Amino acid sequence: MVSVLVYTKPYCPFCRWAKELLKSxxxxxxEIDVERDLELEMKMRRESGRDTVPQVFIDGRPHGGxxxxxxxxxxxxxxxxxxxxxxxxxSADAGATExxxxxxxxxxxxxxxxxxxxxxxxxxxxxxxxxxxxLTITTDVENFPGFPEGVLGPDMMDLFxxxxxxxxxxxxxxxxxxxxxxxxxxxxxxxxxxxxxxxALIIATGASAKWIGIPGEAPAPxxxxxxxxxxxxxxxxAFFRNQAVAVVGGGDTAMEEANFLTKFxxxxxxIHRRDKFRASKIMQDRVLKNPKVEVxxxxxxxxxxxxxxxxxxxxxxSTVNGAEEVxxxxxxxxxxxxxxxxxxxxxxxxxDEHGYIRTxxxxxxxxxxxxxxxGDVADRVYRQAVTAAGxxxxxxxxxxxxxxxxxxx
Length: 409
Ligand code: NAP
Hints:
Distance between the termini: 45 Å
Bound molecules: NADP nicotinamide-adenine-dinucleotide phosphate
Number of strands: 23
Shape: globular
CATH architecture of the largest domain: 3-Layer(bba) Sandwich
Structural class: alpha/beta
Helix content: 25-40%
CATH topology of the largest domain: FAD/NAD(P)-binding domain
């Protein structure tokens, strides 16, 4: 049996998912909370070469964080790394045709699962790249009805997950890399080389954070990703105590990240390419009133600079007169919006010019029969948890009707 050690922080959703993944494998592990122990945190950084939690050590060797474990799982290699006998569960499951498969476990996917499970469709949810969706990397959700005091994003997704599981939803990790939406049953090719089949499919794969695409932004060792550059203040904010940190963007995400980071940093520089934010008034006001925040209007970030080990600043350029400068700072949080996760379905289903799936008016039907889309993957306009949940419900009802009407597909 291997020995597994996980360094965590209590508020970090990735830590929670890493622990859940290990638990789902039945692997015992020791957890070390480094939230209030700087010495332990420095030890973790030294020994892993990474600046972020969770950090998983297997038999004393660093194996990265949740994404790294999930990657191994998608490639079918995690069992081997954890010293488990190969069980071939993926391929055994892959033989059966499911009534309905739901891709994605954010508010849309899990609401679809609750409705489909209660309709006795025995849904299978495939978690995808970001289990729990975007809410797992957000802090307070104050606008989801039913939570008058607000709720933490990761906590809300735990509630959704528990509710879906209560009615028998099965949730597995995996990534669909290709889909044959014309085949009957529909065929989903998975990243680990297996295939799954289903009679109806609900795509609720959401959207992923966008990156600026500038030199120095890529993950280490190519750039300063994980060594200063991040897209998740909830996960990494506490590493920047008493430092100067920049946030890029002018939407609600940027405001939320900026506001959260002011709990830790000495100075927060909010960089926006125009002279107006597009964020909601209430969120703008909170940030603009915060004495730690300085806004750089009409400014673009053109490069992340550093000393080879950590980032030390940003190259900035005025979008008005082209003037350039270097801003000394130790962190960059990129919060410039999202792109839909639809690569696996390209060419097989109608999408708009930005890659969002087109649905038919008033329902979640797509151009492919038996395939339904819900949540941010099909919504460029509203993109709220509550609208995602609403369309998730619609997708399950649409799928249920489709299956009733097409009993022989
Ligand atoms: P968004 O509203 O699309 O805003 C993206 C921001 O990034 C814009 O200000 C945009 O600038 C800027 N941007 C885009 N590409 C850029 C680039 N290459 N370089 C520099 N800046 C760039 O995205 P979001 O803030 O992620 O919000 C998405 C949706 O989620 C919205 O509907 C939002 O209301 C919602 N949301 C809600 C909450 C909440 O209520 N708690 C929290 C987060 C998000 P321009 O303005 O110049 O286009």
